[in-house]
Amino acid sequence: MIAHLQRASNTVGLLSYLYGPGERGDHVSPRLIAGEGHGAPIELLAEPGSLPYLAHALDAPVERLGTRVPAQPTWVCSVRSDPRQADLTDSQWAAVARRLVDVTGIAPEGDPDACRWIAVRNRPRQVHVVATIAREDGSLHNGYRDAFRLQSECHLLAAEPGHLPIAPQSTPRTQETRMPSPSITITAEPSGSVSAKGASDDLSATLLKHAGFQQIDDWYGRRHRLPTTTPTDDRAAIATHAAEMLRAARYGVDLDPTLDTTTAFTSANPLGPYAAGAELLRLTEQIRSAETGADLKQTLDHLLDPEHGALERIREALEAAGEQITDLDDEAFQLADRFGFAEDFVHSAMSELVDSDDELLRVGRAQQPSEQAQTRSRWLPQFRGAAVAASPAAAKAQVSASPDSRSTQPSAAGLPPRAPGPRL
Protein backbone atom coordinates (compact mmCIF):
# COMPACT_ATOMS: atom_id res chain seq x y z
CA MET A 1 0.00 0.00 0.00
CA ILE A 2 1.40 3.40 -1.05
CA ALA A 3 0.29 6.88 0.05
CA HIS A 4 1.10 9.96 -2.01
CA LEU A 5 0.66 13.36 -0.33
CA GLN A 6 0.07 16.66 -2.14
CA ARG A 7 -1.29 20.14 -1.46
CA ALA A 8 -3.78 22.14 -3.56
CA SER A 9 -4.95 25.74 -3.61
CA ASN A 10 -8.48 25.27 -4.99
CA THR A 11 -10.79 22.84 -3.21
CA VAL A 12 -13.69 23.09 -5.67
CA GLY A 13 -11.35 22.52 -8.62
CA LEU A 14 -9.89 19.45 -6.93
CA LEU A 15 -13.35 18.01 -6.21
CA SER A 16 -14.42 18.67 -9.80
CA TYR A 17 -11.45 16.63 -10.98
CA LEU A 18 -12.07 13.76 -8.53
CA TYR A 19 -15.76 13.57 -9.45
CA GLY A 20 -15.06 14.05 -13.15
CA PRO A 21 -13.89 11.55 -15.80
CA GLY A 22 -10.19 11.95 -14.95
CA GLU A 23 -7.28 12.82 -17.22
CA ARG A 24 -7.42 9.43 -18.95
CA GLY A 25 -11.15 8.87 -18.56
CA ASP A 26 -10.48 6.23 -15.90
CA HIS A 27 -12.65 7.57 -13.05
CA VAL A 28 -15.47 5.10 -12.40
CA SER A 29 -18.52 5.84 -10.24
CA PRO A 30 -17.03 8.61 -8.03
CA ARG A 31 -18.56 8.42 -4.55
CA LEU A 32 -18.06 9.62 -0.99
CA ILE A 33 -17.21 6.77 1.39
CA ALA A 34 -16.28 8.63 4.62
CA GLY A 35 -15.75 12.08 6.05
CA GLU A 36 -16.32 14.53 8.90
CA GLY A 37 -17.85 17.98 8.33
CA HIS A 38 -18.45 19.08 11.95
CA GLY A 39 -22.14 19.66 11.33
CA ALA A 40 -21.95 20.35 7.59
CA PRO A 41 -24.10 17.86 5.60
CA ILE A 42 -21.25 16.55 3.48
CA GLU A 43 -23.14 13.33 2.63
CA LEU A 44 -25.92 15.35 0.99
CA LEU A 45 -23.50 17.69 -0.77
CA ALA A 46 -21.28 14.96 -2.26
CA GLU A 47 -23.00 15.01 -5.66
CA PRO A 48 -21.61 16.38 -8.95
CA GLY A 49 -24.14 19.24 -8.97
CA SER A 50 -23.39 20.24 -5.37
CA LEU A 51 -19.59 20.23 -5.43
CA PRO A 52 -19.25 24.04 -4.93
CA TYR A 53 -21.34 23.72 -1.75
CA LEU A 54 -19.28 20.73 -0.59
CA ALA A 55 -16.07 22.69 -1.20
CA HIS A 56 -17.52 25.64 0.75
CA ALA A 57 -18.36 23.34 3.67
CA LEU A 58 -14.79 22.02 3.75
CA ASP A 59 -13.32 25.52 3.36
CA ALA A 60 -15.42 27.17 6.09
CA PRO A 61 -12.67 26.97 8.79
CA VAL A 62 -10.14 28.27 6.24
CA GLU A 63 -12.27 31.32 5.46
CA ARG A 64 -12.32 32.22 9.16
CA LEU A 65 -8.52 32.54 9.17
CA GLY A 66 -8.58 35.90 7.39
CA THR A 67 -5.07 37.03 6.53
CA ARG A 68 -3.54 33.81 7.84
CA VAL A 69 -4.91 31.69 4.99
CA PRO A 70 -2.00 29.64 3.52
CA ALA A 71 -1.39 29.57 -0.22
CA GLN A 72 -2.37 25.88 -0.47
CA PRO A 73 -4.83 25.05 2.29
CA THR A 74 -6.14 21.78 0.82
CA TRP A 75 -4.46 18.53 1.93
CA VAL A 76 -4.74 15.61 -0.54
CA CYS A 77 -3.63 12.04 0.14
CA SER A 78 -3.97 9.38 -2.57
CA VAL A 79 -3.66 5.78 -1.35
CA ARG A 80 -3.17 2.74 -3.60
CA SER A 81 -3.31 -0.90 -2.56
CA ASP A 82 -1.14 -3.80 -3.70
CA PRO A 83 -2.36 -4.95 -7.15
CA ARG A 84 -1.33 -8.51 -6.25
CA GLN A 85 -4.05 -8.59 -3.58
CA ALA A 86 -7.82 -8.45 -3.81
CA ASP A 87 -9.36 -4.97 -3.74
CA LEU A 88 -10.97 -3.54 -0.60
CA THR A 89 -14.65 -2.77 -0.19
CA ASP A 90 -15.87 0.79 0.35
CA SER A 91 -16.24 0.18 4.08
CA GLN A 92 -12.68 -1.19 4.30
CA TRP A 93 -11.32 1.81 2.40
CA ALA A 94 -13.30 4.10 4.74
CA ALA A 95 -11.56 2.46 7.72
CA VAL A 96 -8.18 2.99 6.03
CA ALA A 97 -8.98 6.68 5.45
CA ARG A 98 -9.96 7.18 9.11
CA ARG A 99 -6.71 5.62 10.29
CA LEU A 100 -4.68 7.89 8.00
CA VAL A 101 -6.33 11.14 9.11
CA ASP A 102 -5.92 9.98 12.71
CA VAL A 103 -2.21 9.10 12.51
CA THR A 104 -1.31 12.35 10.68
CA GLY A 105 -3.26 14.54 13.10
CA ILE A 106 -5.64 15.83 10.44
CA ALA A 107 -8.54 14.37 12.43
CA PRO A 108 -7.40 12.57 15.61
CA GLU A 109 -10.08 10.30 17.03
CA GLY A 110 -12.25 12.14 19.55
CA ASP A 111 -10.86 15.61 18.72
CA PRO A 112 -13.81 18.07 18.47
CA ASP A 113 -11.63 20.70 16.76
CA ALA A 114 -10.15 18.42 14.08
CA CYS A 115 -9.87 19.40 10.41
CA ARG A 116 -12.75 18.72 8.06
CA TRP A 117 -12.12 15.89 5.62
CA ILE A 118 -13.72 13.51 3.12
CA ALA A 119 -12.66 10.27 1.41
CA VAL A 120 -13.60 9.87 -2.27
CA ARG A 121 -13.30 6.68 -4.25
CA ASN A 122 -13.31 6.84 -8.05
CA ARG A 123 -11.01 4.01 -9.15
CA PRO A 124 -10.34 0.40 -8.15
CA ARG A 125 -7.59 -0.10 -5.55
CA GLN A 126 -7.40 3.60 -4.73
CA VAL A 127 -8.97 6.23 -2.48
CA HIS A 128 -8.41 10.00 -2.20
CA VAL A 129 -8.56 11.70 1.19
CA VAL A 130 -9.21 15.45 0.94
CA ALA A 131 -8.99 17.80 3.95
CA THR A 132 -8.51 21.47 4.67
CA ILE A 133 -5.71 22.17 7.14
CA ALA A 134 -7.59 24.77 9.19
CA ARG A 135 -8.87 23.32 12.47
CA GLU A 136 -12.15 24.32 14.10
CA ASP A 137 -10.32 26.20 16.88
CA GLY A 138 -8.60 28.53 14.41
CA SER A 139 -5.20 26.84 14.41
CA LEU A 140 -3.48 25.22 11.45
CA HIS A 141 -2.50 21.59 11.06
CA ASN A 142 1.27 21.11 11.14
CA GLY A 143 2.04 18.63 8.36
CA TYR A 144 5.81 18.52 8.75
CA ARG A 145 5.96 14.73 9.36
CA ASP A 146 2.81 13.71 7.50
CA ALA A 147 4.57 11.88 4.67
CA PHE A 148 6.56 9.68 7.06
CA ARG A 149 3.53 8.94 9.24
CA LEU A 150 1.45 8.02 6.19
CA GLN A 151 4.00 5.58 4.81
CA SER A 152 4.55 3.97 8.21
CA GLU A 153 0.81 3.48 8.69
CA CYS A 154 0.45 2.07 5.16
CA HIS A 155 3.10 -0.54 5.93
CA LEU A 156 1.26 -1.46 9.13
CA LEU A 157 -2.04 -1.73 7.26
CA ALA A 158 -0.57 -3.98 4.60
CA ALA A 159 1.19 -6.17 7.19
CA GLU A 160 -1.84 -6.74 9.40
CA PRO A 161 -3.11 -10.33 9.10
CA GLY A 162 -6.33 -10.49 7.13
CA HIS A 163 -6.23 -6.86 6.10
CA LEU A 164 -6.13 -7.82 2.42
CA PRO A 165 -7.41 -11.24 1.37
CA ILE A 166 -4.98 -13.24 -0.69
CA ALA A 167 -5.75 -13.03 -4.38
CA PRO A 168 -5.40 -16.04 -6.70
CA GLN A 169 -1.97 -16.49 -8.16
CA SER A 170 -1.81 -14.40 -11.30
CA THR A 171 -0.85 -16.02 -14.56
CA PRO A 172 2.54 -14.76 -15.72
CA ARG A 173 2.30 -12.41 -18.62
CA THR A 174 3.41 -13.73 -21.97
CA GLN A 175 6.99 -12.79 -22.58
CA GLU A 176 7.56 -10.40 -25.44
CA THR A 177 8.88 -12.17 -28.50
CA ARG A 178 11.74 -10.40 -30.16
CA MET A 179 13.64 -11.20 -33.27
CA PRO A 180 17.42 -11.42 -32.94
CA SER A 181 18.92 -7.96 -33.43
CA PRO A 182 21.25 -7.64 -36.43
CA SER A 183 24.68 -6.33 -35.48
CA ILE A 184 26.51 -3.42 -37.11
CA THR A 185 30.07 -2.32 -36.38
CA ILE A 186 31.13 1.28 -36.97
CA THR A 187 34.89 1.73 -36.80
CA ALA A 188 37.61 4.25 -37.56
CA GLU A 189 40.02 2.59 -39.97
CA PRO A 190 43.81 3.15 -39.93
CA SER A 191 43.48 5.21 -43.10
CA GLY A 192 41.27 7.68 -41.21
CA SER A 193 38.02 6.80 -42.93
CA VAL A 194 34.92 5.57 -41.06
CA SER A 195 33.10 2.41 -42.15
CA ALA A 196 29.94 0.56 -41.11
CA LYS A 197 29.79 -3.20 -41.64
CA GLY A 198 27.41 -5.96 -40.63
CA ALA A 199 23.69 -5.97 -41.38
CA SER A 200 22.93 -5.61 -45.08
CA ASP A 201 19.14 -5.13 -45.07
CA ASP A 202 17.40 -2.15 -46.66
CA LEU A 203 16.35 -0.51 -43.37
CA SER A 204 19.88 -0.28 -41.97
CA ALA A 205 21.11 0.94 -45.35
CA THR A 206 18.48 3.70 -45.39
CA LEU A 207 19.39 4.83 -41.87
CA LEU A 208 23.11 4.90 -42.62
CA LYS A 209 22.57 6.87 -45.84
CA HIS A 210 20.35 9.29 -43.96
CA ALA A 211 23.16 9.85 -41.44
CA GLY A 212 25.60 10.66 -44.25
CA PHE A 213 27.26 7.34 -45.14
CA GLN A 214 27.83 6.27 -48.77
CA GLN A 215 26.81 2.76 -49.82
CA ILE A 216 29.34 0.53 -51.55
CA ASP A 217 28.29 -2.67 -53.37
CA ASP A 218 31.05 -4.93 -54.67
CA TRP A 219 32.13 -8.54 -54.40
CA TYR A 220 32.73 -7.96 -50.65
CA GLY A 221 29.01 -7.30 -50.29
CA ARG A 222 27.10 -4.22 -49.14
CA ARG A 223 28.86 -1.87 -46.76
CA HIS A 224 28.90 1.82 -45.93
CA ARG A 225 31.65 4.41 -45.61
CA LEU A 226 31.84 8.12 -44.91
CA PRO A 227 33.04 10.21 -47.86
CA THR A 228 36.75 10.95 -47.74
CA THR A 229 35.92 14.64 -47.90
CA THR A 230 34.10 14.51 -44.52
CA PRO A 231 35.81 16.95 -42.12
CA THR A 232 37.59 15.26 -39.24
CA ASP A 233 35.48 17.04 -36.62
CA ASP A 234 32.24 15.81 -38.26
CA ARG A 235 33.13 12.12 -38.48
CA ALA A 236 32.46 11.35 -34.81
CA ALA A 237 29.20 13.33 -34.81
CA ILE A 238 27.91 11.50 -37.91
CA ALA A 239 28.96 8.09 -36.58
CA THR A 240 27.29 8.75 -33.21
CA HIS A 241 24.08 9.93 -34.91
CA ALA A 242 24.01 6.82 -37.10
CA ALA A 243 24.49 4.58 -34.06
CA GLU A 244 21.63 6.29 -32.21
CA MET A 245 19.22 5.79 -35.12
CA LEU A 246 20.23 2.16 -35.58
CA ARG A 247 19.82 1.39 -31.87
CA ALA A 248 16.41 3.04 -31.91
CA ALA A 249 15.50 0.61 -34.70
CA ARG A 250 16.71 -2.25 -32.43
CA TYR A 251 19.97 -2.99 -34.19
CA GLY A 252 22.95 -4.02 -32.14
CA VAL A 253 25.67 -1.41 -32.72
CA ASP A 254 29.34 -1.69 -31.82
CA LEU A 255 30.61 1.90 -32.04
CA ASP A 256 34.31 2.70 -31.89
CA PRO A 257 34.86 4.63 -28.58
CA THR A 258 36.88 7.25 -30.45
CA LEU A 259 33.76 8.05 -32.49
CA ASP A 260 31.29 8.15 -29.60
CA THR A 261 30.58 11.79 -28.78
CA THR A 262 28.17 10.89 -25.95
CA THR A 263 31.11 9.79 -23.78
CA ALA A 264 33.33 12.72 -24.59
CA PHE A 265 34.39 14.60 -21.46
CA THR A 266 35.00 18.28 -22.09
CA SER A 267 35.21 21.35 -19.91
CA ALA A 268 31.75 22.38 -21.15
CA ASN A 269 30.29 18.98 -20.25
CA PRO A 270 32.50 17.49 -17.51
CA LEU A 271 30.16 14.57 -16.79
CA GLY A 272 29.70 13.39 -20.35
CA PRO A 273 26.13 12.17 -20.99
CA TYR A 274 24.98 13.13 -17.47
CA ALA A 275 23.86 16.63 -18.43
CA ALA A 276 21.52 17.02 -15.43
CA GLY A 277 24.31 16.14 -13.01
CA ALA A 278 26.64 18.59 -14.75
CA GLU A 279 24.06 21.37 -14.37
CA LEU A 280 23.69 20.65 -10.65
CA LEU A 281 27.49 20.64 -10.34
CA ARG A 282 27.55 24.09 -11.92
CA LEU A 283 24.83 25.23 -9.50
CA THR A 284 26.89 23.93 -6.57
CA GLU A 285 29.86 26.01 -7.69
CA GLN A 286 27.64 29.11 -7.88
CA ILE A 287 26.41 28.42 -4.34
CA ARG A 288 29.99 28.17 -3.08
CA SER A 289 30.92 31.46 -4.77
CA ALA A 290 27.96 33.48 -3.38
CA GLU A 291 29.21 36.56 -1.51
CA THR A 292 25.97 37.76 0.11
CA GLY A 293 22.75 36.26 1.39
CA ALA A 294 20.90 37.83 -1.56
CA ASP A 295 23.28 36.14 -4.03
CA LEU A 296 22.83 32.85 -2.21
CA LYS A 297 19.02 33.17 -2.28
CA GLN A 298 19.04 33.92 -6.02
CA THR A 299 21.15 30.84 -6.74
CA LEU A 300 19.21 28.53 -4.40
CA ASP A 301 15.95 29.56 -6.06
CA HIS A 302 16.94 27.31 -8.99
CA LEU A 303 17.04 24.44 -6.49
CA LEU A 304 14.14 25.26 -4.15
CA ASP A 305 11.45 26.91 -6.26
CA PRO A 306 8.26 24.90 -5.46
CA GLU A 307 7.13 24.79 -9.11
CA HIS A 308 10.25 24.92 -11.29
CA GLY A 309 13.15 24.11 -8.96
CA ALA A 310 15.50 21.15 -9.33
CA LEU A 311 14.12 19.41 -6.22
CA GLU A 312 10.58 19.55 -7.63
CA ARG A 313 11.78 18.11 -10.95
CA ILE A 314 13.59 15.32 -9.06
CA ARG A 315 10.44 14.61 -7.04
CA GLU A 316 8.37 14.40 -10.22
CA ALA A 317 10.94 12.10 -11.85
CA LEU A 318 10.87 9.71 -8.87
CA GLU A 319 7.06 9.73 -8.88
CA ALA A 320 6.98 9.01 -12.62
CA ALA A 321 9.52 6.21 -12.18
CA GLY A 322 7.37 4.51 -9.52
CA GLU A 323 4.24 4.76 -11.67
CA GLN A 324 6.03 3.52 -14.78
CA ILE A 325 7.45 0.52 -12.90
CA THR A 326 3.92 -0.44 -11.81
CA ASP A 327 2.59 0.03 -15.35
CA LEU A 328 5.34 -2.13 -16.85
CA ASP A 329 5.29 -4.90 -14.26
CA ASP A 330 2.58 -5.46 -11.64
CA GLU A 331 4.94 -7.81 -9.80
CA ALA A 332 7.49 -5.05 -9.17
CA PHE A 333 5.27 -3.39 -6.57
CA GLN A 334 7.96 -3.31 -3.87
CA LEU A 335 10.42 -1.57 -6.21
CA ALA A 336 7.75 1.03 -7.07
CA ASP A 337 7.14 1.47 -3.34
CA ARG A 338 10.84 2.29 -2.80
CA PHE A 339 10.67 5.01 -5.43
CA GLY A 340 7.57 6.34 -3.67
CA PHE A 341 9.50 6.51 -0.40
CA ALA A 342 12.34 8.38 -2.12
CA GLU A 343 9.84 10.85 -3.57
CA ASP A 344 8.42 11.51 -0.07
CA PHE A 345 11.93 12.14 1.29
CA VAL A 346 12.54 14.75 -1.41
CA HIS A 347 9.16 16.34 -0.67
CA SER A 348 10.07 16.53 3.02
CA ALA A 349 13.36 18.21 2.12
CA MET A 350 11.40 20.80 0.14
CA SER A 351 9.07 21.32 3.10
CA GLU A 352 12.06 22.00 5.34
CA LEU A 353 13.74 24.53 3.07
CA VAL A 354 11.17 26.29 0.90
CA ASP A 355 10.31 29.03 3.44
CA SER A 356 13.93 30.05 3.94
CA ASP A 357 13.93 33.07 1.57
CA ASP A 358 13.71 35.75 4.26
CA GLU A 359 16.31 34.02 6.42
CA LEU A 360 18.70 33.80 3.47
CA LEU A 361 18.34 37.53 2.82
CA ARG A 362 19.35 38.17 6.44
CA VAL A 363 22.48 36.03 6.18
CA GLY A 364 25.49 38.22 6.88
CA ARG A 365 23.50 41.24 7.99
CA ALA A 366 23.76 42.76 11.45
CA GLN A 367 21.10 41.66 13.93
CA GLN A 368 18.16 43.98 14.49
CA PRO A 369 18.34 46.29 17.53
CA SER A 370 16.84 44.78 20.62
CA GLU A 371 14.25 47.60 20.73
CA GLN A 372 12.77 46.47 17.39
CA ALA A 373 12.68 42.88 18.59
CA GLN A 374 10.86 43.97 21.78
CA THR A 375 8.35 46.01 19.75
CA ARG A 376 7.65 43.02 17.53
CA SER A 377 7.23 40.72 20.54
CA ARG A 378 4.62 43.13 21.97
CA TRP A 379 2.28 43.10 18.95
CA LEU A 380 2.77 39.47 17.86
CA PRO A 381 0.60 37.92 20.64
CA GLN A 382 -2.12 40.51 19.94
CA PHE A 383 -2.18 39.55 16.26
CA ARG A 384 -2.43 35.88 17.10
CA GLY A 385 -5.13 36.56 19.65
CA ALA A 386 -7.19 38.46 17.10
CA ALA A 387 -6.92 35.59 14.62
CA VAL A 388 -8.03 32.96 17.12
CA ALA A 389 -10.78 35.17 18.55
CA ALA A 390 -12.65 34.91 15.25
CA SER A 391 -12.97 31.12 15.61
CA PRO A 392 -15.91 29.35 17.32
CA ALA A 393 -13.53 27.71 19.81
CA ALA A 394 -12.36 31.11 21.07
CA ALA A 395 -15.97 32.29 21.46
CA LYS A 396 -16.81 29.24 23.58
CA ALA A 397 -13.73 29.87 25.72
CA GLN A 398 -14.86 33.43 26.44
CA VAL A 399 -18.35 32.30 27.49
CA SER A 400 -17.01 29.64 29.82
CA ALA A 401 -14.47 31.99 31.49
CA SER A 402 -15.27 33.04 35.08
CA PRO A 403 -16.51 36.68 35.53
CA ASP A 404 -13.88 37.66 38.08
CA SER A 405 -10.96 36.12 36.22
CA ARG A 406 -8.65 38.34 34.21
CA SER A 407 -8.88 37.85 30.42
CA THR A 408 -6.01 35.90 28.99
CA GLN A 409 -4.74 35.70 25.49
CA PRO A 410 -5.58 32.54 23.58
CA SER A 411 -2.80 30.11 22.77
CA ALA A 412 -0.86 30.55 19.60
CA ALA A 413 -2.21 28.88 16.53
CA GLY A 414 -0.48 25.78 15.31
CA LEU A 415 2.23 26.35 12.78
CA PRO A 416 1.35 25.64 9.15
CA PRO A 417 3.34 23.14 7.13
CA ARG A 418 6.70 24.50 6.19
CA ALA A 419 6.05 24.18 2.49
CA PRO A 420 3.29 23.47 0.00
CA GLY A 421 3.45 20.35 -2.12
CA PRO A 422 3.03 20.25 -5.86
CA ARG A 423 -0.10 21.82 -7.32
CA LEU A 424 -2.74 19.58 -8.74
Overall pLDDT score: 77
Number of helices: 14
In angstroms, what is the radius of gyration? 30 Å
Number of strands: 10
- Main beta-sheet strand count, sense and barrel state: 5 strands, antiparallel
Succession of helices and strands: EHEHHEHEEHEEHEEHEHHHHHHH
Whole-Å distance between the termini?
A: 22 Å
- Shape, principal axes of CA atoms: elongated
Q: Output the structural class.
A: alpha+beta
β-sheet strand percentage: 5-15%
Specify the oligomeric state. Answer: single chain
Poorly predicted regions? 163-180, 367-391, 405-424
Proportion of residues in helical segments: 40-55%
Largest sheet strand order? 1-3-5-4-2
Describe this structure in words.
By secondary structure, the protein is an alpha+beta fold. The protein has 14 helices and ten strands. The protein has helices at residues 11-18, 42-45, 51-63, 90-104, 146-159, 202-211, 232-248, 275-288, 293-304, 310-328, 333-353, 357-361, 370-389, 392-400; strands spanning 2-8, 31-36, 74-80, 117-123, 126-132, 183-188, 194-198, 214-218, 221-225, 252-255. The strands form two sheets. The protein has a five-stranded antiparallel beta sheet, sandwiched between helices. Helix 1 (11-18) packs antiparallel against helix 3, helix 4 (90-104) crosses helix 5 and helix 6 (202-211) packs antiparallel against helix 7 (232-248). The model is unreliable at 163-180, 367-391 and 405-424 (pLDDT under 50).
Brief summary:
The chain has 424 residues and is α+β, with helices and mostly antiparallel strands. Helices cover 43% and strands 14% of the residues. It has helices at 11-18, 42-45, 51-63, 90-104, 146-159, 202-211, 232-248, 275-288, 293-304, 310-328, 333-353, 357-361, 370-389, 392-400; strands at 2-8, 31-36, 74-80, 117-123, 126-132, 183-188, 194-198, 214-218, 221-225, 252-255.
